[in-house]
Amino acid sequence: MIRKRAPRWQSAADRAQVAAELMEEAESLTATGIASPADVKRSQLPPPLHVDFTQRSAMLGEGADAGATGVSSLPVEPESPPLPPLQAAQAFMAQGDPDAALVVLDAALGAAPDDAVLLLERATVQSASGRFGAARQDLERVLRADPAHMDAIMGLALLLSRRGLWIEAVPRLKRAVEIQPGYAAAWCQLGESLNRLDQLKEACAAYERAVELEPRNARALYGLGIVLDRLKRPDDATQMYRRSREAAGR
Questions:
Q1: Which of 1, 130, 181, 235 has its CA 20 to 30 A from that of 24?
Q2: In degrees, to the nearest 5, what angle opens at C-alpha 1 toward C-alphas 13 and 32?
Q3: To 5 degrees, how large is the angle CA 16–CA 33–CA 49?
């Protein structure tokens, strides 16, 4: 069971200590917490016999050294090291504990404040838990160091879209397709954002590019149908809706 933890505004040293404890705790979460058939079978076995090697040696006529050798020959399982910060944070998110994940990531970023992988993971955790402003700051921090970082560009564009900030999302999405013209998901999201802004011809072109790249992209086909409907092209829209249903297997 995950223990109640101190607030996140404790000192950096305290956060580091808590993070170390959390990473050890997260080690036990990566196995999903579900017993395997082997675990169940093992739990039903009788307890292991206690062997007194001194008595064993006496019974077999062996000396004390033989008993000591018997003890030292038993295999000893090494203690598992704590998980790395990224894996520990992901383990806590899988268990629905974003606060624990953030404590781990905060402490790790205290030691490596410009680590793009950790910043992106923290932005993901913050966004998933409704901390949109903090998530945006982390994404923009990555982009200040690397303006062409695709994961950060798309992460920020999706975050802005989720908040309904379509005007701000569009230039990020245009930047994404400029850097990676074959990225169908970026074209599809650009089409949606432009449609929301009533820029229908541009939205139609973006969706068509997404469909050209991925002819069975159900979302792009459906979005294109919506835009064609709005452009007073019902026959073309109906065809796109049908293709979308087929692509989705419905």
A1: 130
A2: 100
A3: 105
Per-residue tokens: 202: 């541009």
Local confidence pLDDT in tens for the 250 residues of the chain: 444 455 554 555 565 555 555 655 555 555 444 444 444 444 555 544 444 434 434 433 444 454 444 445 555 556 666 789 899 999 999 999 999 999 999 999 999 999 999 999 999 999 999 999 999 999 999 999 999 999 999 999 999 999 999 999 999 999 999 999 999 999 999 999 999 999 999 999 999 999 999 999 999 999 999 999 999 999 999 999 999 999 998 7
Q: Are 18 and 111 in contact (CB under 8 A)?
A: no
Task: Report the Cα 73 to chain-centroid distance in Å.
Answer: 43
Is-contact 231 204, C-beta < 8 A? yes
CA–chain centroid gap for 207, Å, is 27
Token pair in block for residue 125: 């955790």
Instruction: Report whether 124 contacts 155 (CB < 8 A).
Output: yes
The CA R_g of the chain, rounded to the nearest whole Å, is 28
pTM, two decimals, is: 0.69
What is the Cα–Cα distance from 195 to 202, expressed in whole angstroms? 8
Half-sphere exposure (Cβ direction) of 169: Cα atoms closer than 13 Å: 24
- According to DSSP H, which parts of the chain are helical? 12-27, 37-43, 53-60, 64-72, 85-94, 98-111, 116-128, 132-145, 150-162, 166-179, 184-196, 200-213, 218-230, 234-247
Q: φ and ψ at 183, to 5 degrees?
A: -90, 95
